[in-house]
């Protein structure tokens, strides 16, 4: 299965070159900016079925740091959610709570859209 994913990423299916090897450049984790340099945007959106969700975008950093921040936000708001595609999703209309928490932690955050 790992070979299929490598092929899918490079776009090469087959090579007749006996010395050919797939370029498996590991995408290096992006270094996480300190909270003061982060410029986060907090959105309120409706996801499937009309349910409200609060979305935090524009986080610059590693996936682990994004997940940690998401966990802190979900815990602070007392709701569930997830982190995927570089965004933090918090269940419900929690935009004001999320912005206040991020500002308290030193992030440059402001509400946007929705």
Q: What count of structural domains?
A: 1
Strand content: 25-35%
Mean pLDDT: 83
* SSE order, one letter for each helix or strand: HEEHEEHE
Distance N to C terminus:
41 Å
CATH architecture descriptor text: 2-Layer Sandwich
Strand sequence of the main sheet, in spatial order? 3-4-2-1-5
Would you state the CATH class?
Answer: Alpha Beta
Main β-sheet description: 5 strands, mixed
- Please tally the helical runs, counting DSSP H or I stretches of 4 or more residues: 3
The CATH homologous superfamily is called: SUI1-like domain
> What is the fold-level CATH name, i.e. the topology?
Translation Initiation Factor Eif1
Which residues sit in consecutive blocks of at least 5 with pLDDT less than 50?
4-8
Give the helix proportion (percent range).
25-40%
What does it look like?
Helix content is 30%, strand content 26%. It has 114 residues and is α+β, with helices and mostly antiparallel strands. The protein has one domain: SUI1-like domain (Translation Initiation Factor Eif1), CATH 3.30.780. Strands 3-4-2-1-5 form a 5-stranded mixed beta sheet, covered by helices on one side. Strand 3 and strand 4 form a beta hairpin. 19% of the residues are buried.
């Amino acid at each position: 299965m790992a070979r299929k994913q490598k092929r899918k990423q490079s776009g090469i299916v087959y090579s007749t070159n006996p010395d050919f090897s797939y370029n498996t450049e590991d995408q290096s984790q992006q270094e996480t900016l300190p909270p003061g340099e982060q410029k986060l945007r907090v959105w309120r959106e409706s996801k499937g079925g009309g349910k409200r969700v609060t979305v935090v975008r524009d986080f610059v950093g590693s996936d682990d740091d994004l997940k940690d921040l998401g966990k802190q936000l979900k815990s602070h708001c007392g709701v569930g959610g997830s982190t995927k595609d570089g965004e933090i999703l918090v269940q419900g209309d929690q935009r004001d709570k999320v912005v206040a928490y991020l500002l308290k932690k030193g992030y440059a955050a402001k509400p946007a859209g929705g």
